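Note to self: keep these together.
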Amino acid sequence: MPSRLLAASVLAVFVVFFVLPVLWLVLAATKTDQQLVHDSPLSIGSWHTLEANWHALSAYQDNAILLWLRNSALYAVISLVITLCVAVPAGYALAMTEFRGRRALLVSTLVVMLMPNATLVVPLFLEINAVGLIGTMWSIILPYSFYPFGVYLTYIYFTTAVPKDLLAAARMDGCSEFGVFRLVALPLATPVIALVGFFSFVANWTNYFLPYVMLPESDQMPVQVGVGNLLSSVPSFNPTVGSLAVERPQLALATLVAITPVLVVFLFAQRFLVSGMLAGATKE
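Structure:
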């Protein structure tokens, strides 16, 4: 009985702190601004109001929300491709080869992985500015592509979950090291590739501070920075917005639109994510 009571209490706390805010956000997009203020927080609006909020959101800066979504997709996908092309071979090389400085490189990767992203923004800005890329998409894509967590994750996977004897047998059969990686190790690494890809995509999609610093123009912004601009256009938070005002239900709808791609990717990738997280739990 006490264990059931404890479980119920934990579940209730989870619902209050995590589920209710998301539910409120979804319902807020279906209401008018007056309904959002005066009606019950969990009351339901209408489909017609949701449609009107979408039209009003789309009218903001001539469909800026769709442009921001396109920018986010462009930055995240190109960075993801580069990340996978670099992180997976790097993790394999660190796991399978011995060379001078290998331990120092692993420690450096781990240290950078543990550093908060915000601490790297200023040095990255100075580096990108030195090569004249500020205000271009490469000022976002190149830093996004540097993903030490992906390197370390693939290193752990190749060290623990891929049988060394299988790779040695491929070498004995005449495979080059690149052939062993491409034909044997890479197909076995599908779960961890999916895991690295998902984490990289989510980190890129949700990053706010870096593009806020690197991209000065509104038509270059990803959706996270764009939603931040919308926040400053809500009269409740900024009374001086004038004709560019955005109501709170439209801001809630923009937030839902911004997080929907991550949810869709998660739903399609969850089978690979589970197997990737369990990979290496037992040594072959």
